[in-house]
DNA sequence: CAGGATCCAATTCGATACTG
DNA sequence: CAGTATCGAATTGGATCCTG
């Protein structure tokens, strides 16, 4: 019988109310954590890894580049010896803080309430 | 803007955050939308589908069962003829609202700011 | 140490079809 | 209408190795 080619999937870009717009930024693993740890001020790659012991180098650099390309995070090279880079929130990034804070607050309540699994970072 | 004014990096990283706990609930596709649309009051399956025209029946019922199993959403059978079911937020679900609202608020700002893709509601 | 490249198992989610 | 079952494409994110 003939080869059956599947119809192309619609693959709609994220959905309906404005949550999609925000979740496109915050929705991936570790993203809110990264933003959270940057919220106190610029931080270096290794510091962030230390903040989140479970994250892999790949994940972290991937997320940082994602966020940079979205204008949420800014990478600045610090002239030192050896020169190193620091990551910080942009203004756009700062605008996300209320949401992150709300997420953190609810997360804490959920954790108490459910008395559940430990989380690193 | 040239180089960002580099403030001293954070000496005191924020304490462990509970982001993961919350994102485990909100992190999957459509979840915040579903909660959002339930926040105005109980709603039936078909109504929710209508609220989110892009969601598939499978997704919706999957998300509803997820949320039910997490105690966020409650399914109650309404005695009518024929009897039908309604979904509503539990108290735990209501506790998530501040986060959802913050996400929606930021989403709207992002949309304005980026002047991007259209989204309804 | 900071980060990229590659490989791969697991999950996610859309389309489709089916049931009461 | 209200939902479930199955299939499979695409995405995810972890592990590992490689680089300057």
TrEMBL record, chains A, B:
It holds the Pfam family HxlR. Residues 17-115 form the HTH hxlR-type domain. Signal peptide: none annotated. The keyword Transcription applies. Keywords: DNA-binding, Transcription, Transcription regulation. The keyword Secreted does not apply. This is Winged helix-turn-helix transcriptional regulator. It comes from Bosea vestrisii.
């Amino acid at each position: 019988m003939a080869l059956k080619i599947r119809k192309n999937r619609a693959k709609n870009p994220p959905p309906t109310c404005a949550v999609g717009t925000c979740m496109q930024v915050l929705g991936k693993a570790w993203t809110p954590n990264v933003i959270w740890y940057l919220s106190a001020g610029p931080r270096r790659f290794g510091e962030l890894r230390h903040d989140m012991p479970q994250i892999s180098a790949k994940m972290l650099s991937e997320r940082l580049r994602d966020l940079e390309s979205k204008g949420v995070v800014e990478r600045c090279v610090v002239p030192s010896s050896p020169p190193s880079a620091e990551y910080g929130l942009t203004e756009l990034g700062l605008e996300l803080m209320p949401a992150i804070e709300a997420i953190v607050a609810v997360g804490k309540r959920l954790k108490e309430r459910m008395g559940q699994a430990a989380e690193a970072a």
